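step: validate -> pass
step: tokenize input -> pass
step: predict -> running
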Amino acid sequence: MPSNQDKEMMNILSIDIGGSNIKACLLSPSGTALSEYTKLPTPTKSTPEAVLVVIKQLAATMGEFGHISVGFPGYVKRGVVYTAPNLAKGKWQNIEFAQMVSDLIGKPVRLINDADQQGLGLADGKGFEIVVTFGTGFGTAFLFDGELLPHFELAHMPITNTKDYDDYVGDKAIKKLGVKEWNERVERVIAIYKNVFNYDNLYLGGGNAKLIDLKLEDNVKIVSNRDGIKGGAKLWKAAEKYDLVTMYPKNAF
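step: predict -> pass
step: emit ->
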């Protein structure tokens, strides 16, 4: 029978990095929250080194854990960050961030796009489901029968002659246009996704989802980051077909 210490080492520190805040929660292997959902502001100069400082601060407030999941706002593959449009410009190309977090905390790490992590935490697992996140920018995750499909950075697809989705419904649009007109844009985005993808379920998440004031169809739901961060537990059950790799501290062996 495993000891309490052994059980604690099966717990997962789930981290969600956003353009405005970095969030964390301690999870059981099944995804049950074992700590408060905690967040700290993303540093103004959000370089890899500055973000690591905040992650270390958050980790110190949690209980014991044996694994770390990180959701990152950009294109990531096999533990490496290739883009981070809403963090420090020019500082995130080809950054081995999973390894950096593992070396900092001394635990194995899996890194995935933040919307994909949210998708794993939110999807019902039936049919074709889409998770979109409205935050500093715009994120997307696609799942079929609960399995992640390849990640696409649809935030950078044009929606007008001069704007991509990040520009169209990101933080800057709210500040420039106000919530009412931003909601009109969100409504247009939902209509586009319905016509193009014919989803079974659509989940509207991210920090700005709380501002959505629209009449939604039954298969469109507003969800919270608190629920989505639970996807961090599923990263440690996820098949390698997601092209996940586990990074271990360099001094572990």
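step: describe -> The CA atoms of residues 114 and 150 lie 14 Å apart.
step: cleanup -> pass
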